[in-house]
Amino acid sequence: MSLHISKKNNSKSIFDKEVYLNFAKYILSCQDSEGGIRWEPNSKLDPWDHIESAMGLDVLGFEEQSNKAYEWLRAYQENDGSWLSLYHSSNKNDLKETNYSSYIAVGMWHHFLNFNNLDFLNEFWPVLDSAIEFTLSAQSKHGDFFWAKDKDNWLDDSLKTGCSSILMSLICYKKIAKELNLKDRVSDKQLMNLKDCLRNKPLRFDRNWESKSRYSMDWYYPVLSGAFSKSESAKILSKKWDEFVVDGLGCKCVTEEPWVTAAESSELVISLTKSGLTNKAEELLQDTFNLMDEDGLLWTGYVFKDEKFWPVEKPSWTMGAAILAGNSINKFSPSSNFFEF
Predict the structure, then answer these.
(1) Gap between the Cα atoms of 51 and 127, Å rounded
(2) What is the overall mean pLDDT for the chain?
(3) CATH classification of the domain holding 87
(4) Could you tell me if 124 and 191 lie in one domain?
(5) Computed over its alpha carbons, how large is the radius of gyration of the chain?
(6) Is residue 125 packed enough to be buried (19+ CB in 10 Å), middle (13-18) or exposed (0-12)?
(7) Is there a single domain that holds both residue 51 and residue 11?
(8) How far is Cα 134 from Cα 200, in angstroms, rounded to an integer?
(9) CA dihedral sign, ordered 231, 237, 242, 246
(10) pLDDT of residue 10
(11) Residues 6 or more apart from 180 whose CB is under 8 A from it?
């Protein structure tokens, strides 16, 4: 899909490490005294994006600050192993999302690959193991996972993107257990059933609400999570490319909206690199950098129909996703091939 942008930025190169260091320094400015990484300085926090931001810090060598992010998770973990979906916000709720709780496994394994610190894995193993226990209690007989718990009740539906994230988390959890020579909670059958559900049971997702297949994350996240082989992944990404990708700007969040978003674009970049589509990945990330402000930070997204950046936010997790994408291309750190499992 071709589009001329009259106010297109002169974006910086995706091969310049200083660009990503600037992203990391912004993430640090969003980290509070307890180690929590807010969306923006002094704003709200959710556990999933908190971890993605910490992963960005890993890539650029900020080990101590990344450790503090896990200290925050330990301090705020619920008795059942979960975390609430949102913190430091007036929009409080009692939701405990399964993919939010399990994602600590992805962050911990990524952290270990960067710093090779077994003490870190040992220290936070109890936090991780309890989180995985909570998530596993939500798996149905079909392999999918209920998306959230509200107080005492599981909410009867499943998200393809959320279940993809859980698959990646369980894989990383098992790798951590193996590294520590500990028994893990995840059976091969549970993992196989989840993977089979993502591949072959589309009716298990969005059972009680409108289909989310309109969202780009439902397209690329099963690829990112390892549900498909490398050759299968390349075909999947090619199939809906023109539906979601806007030349010169990046990946749309929702197919029918004239809105591209930097985080989705960055995650698609990682999906491309793990699928062997490096040239496409480099081009897409460079296009995504057109969403960069004069301060070298990425806006959440751009409404190309109106030629406006929206919302007027620069989330820490957007910078984290962009760092991970840049690392998959530039090989800045030992975790550059992290998603290629």
Answers:
(1) 14
(2) 96
(3) 1.50.10.10
(4) yes
(5) 19
(6) middle
(7) no
(8) 25
(9) negative
(10) 57
(11) 118, 121, 122, 125
User: Which amino acid is located at 250 in the chain?
Assistant: G
202-229 burial, b for 16+ CB within 10 Å, e for fewer? eebbbeeeeeeebbbbbbbbbbbbbbbe
pLDDT at 152: 86
Domain of 264 in residue numbering reads as 1-30+213-341
Token pair, residue 59, equals: 């890539």
Closest by Cα among 13, 110, 15 to 331: 15
Which residues are CB-contacts of 79 (< 8 A; sequence separation ≥ 6)?
Answer: none
Q: Do residues 246 and 292 both lie within one domain?
A: yes
CB atoms within 10 A of CB 297: 20
240-299 pLDDT, tens per residue?
999 999 999 999 999 999 999 999 999 999 999 999 999 999 999 999 999 999 999 999
State whether 161 and 60 are in the same domain: yes
What angle do helix axes 262-274 and 230-239 make, rounded to 10 degrees?
Answer: 140
User: Residue 199 is which amino acid?
Assistant: R
For residue 192, which of 174, 179, 180, 211 has the smallest C-alpha distance?
Answer: 174
Into how many domains does the chain fold?
2
**Can you tell me which residue has the tokens 């020579």?**
181
Q: Which two tokens stand for residue 189?
A: 């059958």
Report the C-alpha gap between 46 and 72 in whole angstroms: 12
In the listed set 212, 234, 251, which residue is the last one of a domain according to the structure?
Answer: 212
- From CA 173, how far away is CA 109, in angstroms rounded? 8
Would you give the end-to-end CA distance of the chain in angstroms? Answer: 31
Task: State mean pLDDT over 119-145.
Answer: 98
Contacting residues for 259 by C-beta, under 8 A, at least 6 apart: 252, 253, 301, 302, 303, 304, 310
Which run of H or E residues covers position 154?
strand 153-154
Cα–Cα distance for residue pair 236/229, rounded to 1 Å: 10
Exposed/middle/buried for 25, CB within 10 Å: 0-12, 13-18, 19+? middle
143, two tokens:
């392999």
Residue 189: count of CB within 10 angstroms of its CB: 9
